[in-house]
Design brief:
Blueprint (H helix, E strand, L loop, with lengths): L1 H19 L8 H8 L4 E9 L2 E12 L3 H8 L12 E10 L2 E10 L2 E12 L4 E6 L9 E11 L2 E11 L4 H6 L3 H5 L2 H9 L8
Antiparallel strand pairs: 1-2, 2-8, 3-4, 4-5, 5-6, 6-7, 7-8
Length: 202
């Protein structure tokens, strides 16, 4: 069951990646208007497949800062508690070349979640891909995603894709209706962290 879940997650994320990186399903006129206006553009995905309850989708945010400045922020794990909602602490526990293993600790009003994430950094394409490290203890069932940057009119477009099965119980009961919004918020958090005068509530 776990192998089938991972295959399903990988296939769904491959589709999200092609969409978020602009390789298919071009923005609608309304999405383009909102993106240029500085709004977060989201395409939610929620699906049940082979026992997995997957939440997430893709999101995009224009950031009024040069690409290299944005890249310096998103590739630095110590910044992640300010970029990922509810993430309280992150620690690099292993590093080999461009691959890092991060220990992530989330805290929220009704509990917490701990897991390890494998992250691969590609400086040439300004892309980071990450996936749950199932060989280590994890409080979530599955997770995989990416962040990629492209220049836009002197600024940067942050593209984000994320799919996760957070498991059953209280987390899903309490946060189920809000999980897509929560999982797709990081590009907005990047903007609020970088642009002067913004309040970062992540």
């Amino acid at each position: 069951m776990r192998t089938r879940t991972l295959l399903s997650l990988s296939a769904a994320l491959a589709l999200l990646s092609s969409v978020a990186l602009g390789q298919s399903d071009a923005f609608t006129a309304e999405e383009r208007r909102r993106l240029v206006a500085g709004e977060l553009v989201r395409r939610d995905m929620t699906r049940t497949d082979r026992g997995a309850r997957l939440f997430g989708g893709s999101s995009w945010q224009r950031v009024d800062a040069p690409l290299e400045r944005v890249w310096a922020v998103v590739r630095e794990p110590s910044r992640y508690p300010r970029l990922i909602p509810s993430l309280e602490t992150v620690r690099v526990v292993a590093r080999r070349g461009d691959e890092h293993v991060l220990r992530m600790h989330h805290a929220f009003g009704v509990g917490s979640a701990d897991y390890f994430m494998r992250m691969t950094i590609d400086d040439a394409t300004h892309t980071i891909r990450f996936a749950l490290d199932e060989s280590r203890p994890h409080d979530v069932q599955a997770g995989r995603g990416f962040v990629s940057l492209t220049p836009y009119r002197g600024g940067t477009i942050v593209a984000w894709g994320m799919l996760a099965d957070v498991g059953g119980g209280m987390r899903q009961q309490v946060f189920g209706p809000f999980l897509n919004e929560w999982l797709l918020k990081p590009p907005r958090c990047v903007r609020d962290e970088i642009e002067p005068g913004r309040v970062n509530e992540c």
